[in-house]
From TrEMBL, chain A:
It comes from the Eukaryota. Signal peptide: none annotated. This is pyruvate dehydrogenase (acetyl-transferring). InterPro entries: THDP-binding, Transketo_C/PFOR_II, Transketolase-like_Pyr-bd, Transketolase_C. It is found in: Plastid, Chloroplast. Its cofactor is thiamine diphosphate. GO terms for molecular function: metal ion binding; pyruvate dehydrogenase (acetyl-transferring) activity. Pfam families: Transket_pyr (PF02779), Transketolase_C (PF02780).
Automatic annotation (TrEMBL), chain B:
The lineage of its organism: Eukaryota, Viridiplantae, Streptophyta, Embryophyta, Tracheophyta. One of its GO terms (molecular function) is pyruvate dehydrogenase (acetyl-transferring) activity. Transmembrane segments: none annotated. Keywords: Oxidoreductase, Pyruvate, Thiamine pyrophosphate. This is Pyruvate dehydrogenase E1 component subunit alpha. Its cofactor is thiamine diphosphate. PANTHER family: PYRUVATE DEHYDROGENASE E1 COMPONENT SUBUNIT ALPHA, PYRUVATE DEHYDROGENASE E1 COMPONENT, ALPHA SUBUNIT BACTERIAL AND ORGANELLAR. The keyword Oxidoreductase applies. It is an enzyme of class 1 (oxidoreductase). GO terms for biological process: pyruvate decarboxylation to acetyl-CoA. It comes from Eragrostis curvula (weeping love grass). It catalyses: N(6)-[(R)-lipoyl]-L-lysyl-[protein] + pyruvate + H(+) = N(6)-[(R)-S(8)-acetyldihydrolipoyl]-L-lysyl-[protein] + CO2. InterPro entries: DH_E1, PDH_E1_Alpha_Subunit, Pyrv_DH_E1_asu_subgrp-y, THDP-binding.
Length: 392, 424
């Protein structure tokens, strides 16, 4: 942890972190945890700020580092991050259903029980509220639990503990107890998983004070955010997506940690700012191909930090493009998009040339039928149409 | 996997029916009711029936003789007396202060239940943890949180143990390992289970052992909570992993206005322990020495890594559920029945009877406590209210969680951030 803290440097006030520019030693963006490294020392060691291309484009990796990196699937990246943290900090432990002997229902904890033992990788009974609360109590007493919801939707059962205890205890205790808990799991609309396994809990949790929320979308940011979440002293909810676990990506061989509060510039552009996260990033990038062919130049930002929003990156983009499209998987009512729209209006109203458009999922329980399910979430064609409309 | 026969047998409640009267429909005898044999045999060794409430089992005379509580030394007795008097005087002062408009909101007083808090908590070390509910003032005091810190917290002052941010229902103290103070019943039990898990983890994974044994966690909660899912889920997990925890049920027979008997299919809460594989004990919660004896055993079990225990303390609150409760549903004869077993009076009589101290010594303890509580009120009165700048502090342990503002800096780096003038 010493390395991480020594590398945290406040961003120099005069040089806002420009999207896409990798020369600024953005120490807070990516921290490379080597003992000797100072922020900014040796550009080669610093992994450049995410000019990460999407799947299918140029090799997706921000690695401006010396070695080539290695390729793996997103769930393996999460696993790698978790293992690294568990090896370096013996207070990191995992609770969840089937995380131990079964290896995790999405294999994120595969092999961990053999490596670290049954107490550190704890197979819990099916009692979300109680084992999440157990995570809170353990965190208050010095451990750093990572609580897995087998599906994010199951964490609805843990809402009491997540809201009242996780989010609030640091405050109501007057700062006496910290809750360095990580709550993670797959959410989002999958492939015909049915309504209850297709939920987007980020919209339900976003009001909880004291909670941070991040969503990963690539192997690279998955590992970096996992590590950052574990090291954070705040309770962090890490949203993964059921359909992204097998996404291939290349990640650096060296250790790296990402910044929880930062957004990721996926594709710099000039005409319109498209804000998205998690799986919708890929629908956006797919739409971007079409849009580029039609002559548009969209700027795509994966907001990553769902709470709090990285208004700096978002704002810089809006100041440049003056048009905003939000593409999210949450439902229209009360989703992340709704809050983001509100935050943009509050902060960047003067820079907008057009009303903010927000494409969200339909306000319906996700139907089982494939055709209906496809109609529930935002598809690339809709994104293209929206940009066309915005840029008229 | 049965606990050592000694301890398990000791903790089997004797076979006896509950008293009838206005409180209960007649219940089947315990032995008959359970279809399957309970672990540890059917030995109903009445001479080890320490865990019997002579109030509850009114018909059972044999049981009444079970005053087999261990002798206490003079020092111990005076410590217990002082702690209970502190609890009582403090709570009475709370009522006064509430009606004088010094504290607000929901205030739940502990009058009458002092034997449970004192009986258990005075056996703990500083490293042991206590988790409570909204009726937590006295648990805080017993655990060692200074009366002035608790009173200041109740007054909402910045010098309160939680800087005024918690209030009556959220008492926390890290130095004293008081892990709350919870407003929703049952939500503290998993937290307590987690603290016990951490104790076990420290021992087994981090290899931090103490000659004293494992650090113990006590979870206090009421009869109403025993119908809540979190209670059962945690009994299961605690026994599954043999966590060093004691589940202490303060059964005061009422959940606001719902009698325990109207809410619970099987009102004998101690029986729910063996259902999960742990000993379940019933004890007269109005007798501090009886409680203390049971507590010693339960805490000892946890410390020796023998696993959790469920202790049902039958007790009574002399006041309403909270200061807002008109308390019209409880019958006067029930109230007077329990008032006659005031734990403080009972201990006082015991002390004088056994010549452990004189009446005047006890009186001087009472006077000392009154001074302590008066001083606590003065301190709280004189303390400042939290300034507005305190509002955003402590929301996050790492204030970077407030995010990066439009200017590129972390919001918390803005010097005006906590003044409430920064843009959040």
């Amino acid at each position: 942890m010493a390395a991480a803290s020594s590398l945290h440097a406040a961003a120099p006030a005069a040089t806002p972190c420009r999207a896409g520019i990798t020369s600024t030693p953005v120490a807070r963006s990516v921290r490379v945890a080597t003992a000797a490294a100072r922020p900014g020392a040796g550009r080669g060691r610093l992994v450049a700020r995410a000019a990460v291309a999407a799947k299918g484009d140029a090799p997706s990796c921000a690695a401006a580092s010396n070695s080539d990196g290695h390729e793996l699937l997103l769930f393996e990246a999460l696993r790698e991050g978790l293992i690294e943290e568990m090896k370096s900090d013996p207070t990191v432990c995992v609770f969840g259903e089937d995380v131990g002997h079964y290896g995790g229902s999405y294999k994120v904890t595969k092999g961990l029980a053999e490596m670290f033992g049954d107490l550190r990788v704890l197979d819990t009974p099916i009692a979300e509220n109680s084992f999440t609360g157990m995570g809170v109590g353990a965190a208050m007493k010095g451990l750093r639990p990572v609580v897995e919801g087998m599906n994010m939707g199951f964490l609805l059962l843990a809402y009491n503990q997540i809201s009242n205890n996780c989010g609030m205890l640091h405050y109501t205790s007057g700062g006496q107890f910290k809750i360095p808990l990580v709550i993670r799991g797959p959410g989002g609309v999958g492939r015909q998983l049915g309504a209850e396994h297709s939920q987007r809990l980020e919209s339900y949790f976003q009001s909880i004070p004291g909670l941070q929320m991040v969503a990963c979308s690539t192997a690279y940011n998955a590992k970096g955010l996992m590590k950052a979440a574990i090291r954070s002293e705040n309770p962090v909810v890490l949203f993964e997506h059921v359909l992204l676990y097998n996404l291939k990506g290349k990640i650096p061989d060296e250790e790296y940690v990402l910044c929880l509060e930062e957004a990721e510039m996926v594709r710099p552009g000039e005409h319109v700012t498209i804000l998205t996260y998690s799986r919708m990033r890929y629908h956006v990038m797919q739409a971007a191909k079409t849009l580029v062919n039609e002559g548009y130049d969209p700027e795509v930002i994966d907001i990553r930090s769902l709470k709090p929003f990285d208004l700096h990156t978002i704002g810089n983009s809006i100041k440049k493009t003056h048009r905003v499209l939000i593409v999210e998987e949450c439902m229209r009512t009360g989703g992340i998009g709704a809050s983001l729209r509100s935050a943009i209006i509050d902060n960047f109203w003067d820079y907008l040339d057009a009303p903010i458009m927000c494409l969200s999922s339909q306000d319906v329980p996700t139907p089982y039928a494939g055709t209906l399910e496809d109609a529930t979430v935002v598809q690339p064609a809709q994104i293209v149409a929206a940009v066309e409309q915005l840029c008229q | 996997m049965a606990a050592a026969s000694f301890t398990t047998a000791k903790f089997l409640a004797p076979v006896a029916a509950r008293s009838g009267g206005d409180r209960a429909p007649p219940l089947p005898a315990i032995g008959a009711a359970s279809a399957r044999p309970r672990r540890g045999a059917q030995k109903t060794r009445l001479r080890t029936a320490l865990a019997v409430s002579s109030d509850v089992l009114a018909g059972n005379k044999v049981v009444q003789a079970a005053a087999g509580h261990l002798a206490v030394t003079r020092e111990e007795a005076l410590e217990l007396y002082e702690d209970m008097v502190l609890g009582r005087v403090f709570e009475d002062m709370c009522a006064q202060m509430y009606y004088r408009g010094k504290m607000f909101g929901f205030v739940h007083l502990y009058n009458g239940q002092e034997a449970v808090s004192t009986g258990f908590i005075k056996l703990l070390n500083q490293a042991d943890c206590v988790v409570s509910t909204y009726r937590d003032h006295v648990h805080a005091l017993s655990k060692g949180v200074p009366a002035r810190s608790v009173m200041a917290e109740l007054f909402g002052k910045a010098t309160g143990c939680c800087r005024g941010q918690g209030g009556s229902m959220h008492m926390f103290s890290a130095p004293h390992n008081l892990l709350g103070g919870f407003a929703f019943i049952g939500e503290g039990i998993p937290v307590a289970t987690g603290a016990a898990f951490a104790a076990k983890y420290r021992h087994e994974v981090l290899k931090q052992s103490s000659p004293k044994g494992l650090d113990v966690t006590l979870a206090f909660f009421g009869d109403g909570t025993c119908n809540n899912g979190q209670f059962f889920e945690c009994l299961n997990m605690a026994q599954l992993w043999k966590l060093p925890i004691v589940f202490v049920v303060e059964n005061n027979l009422w959940a606001i206005g719902v009698s325990h008997l109207r809410a619970t299919s099987d009102p004998e809460i101690w029986k729910k322990g063996p259902a999960f594989g742990m000993p379940g004990v019933h004890v007269d919660g109005m007798g501090v020495l009886k409680v203390r004896e049971v507590a010693k055993e339960a805490i000892g079990r946890a410390r020796r890594d023998e696993g959790p225990t469920l202790v049902e303390c039958e007790t009574y609150r002399f006041r309403g559920h909270s200061l807002a409760d008109p308390d019209e549903l409880r019958r006067p004869d029930e109230k007077s029945h329990y008032a006659a077993s005031d734990p403080i009076t009972a201990l006082k009589n015991y002390i004088i009877e056994k010549n452990l101290a004189t009446e005047s010594e006890l009186k001087s303890i009472e006077k000392k406590i009154e001074d302590v509580v008066e001083e606590a009120v003065e301190f709280a009165d004189a303390s400042p209210h939290p300034p507005r700048s305190q509002l955003l502090e402590n929301v996050f342990a790492d204030p970077k969680g407030f995010g990066i503002g439009p200017d590129g800096k972390y919001r918390c780096e803005d010097p005006k951030f906590t003044q409430g003038t920064a843009q959040v």
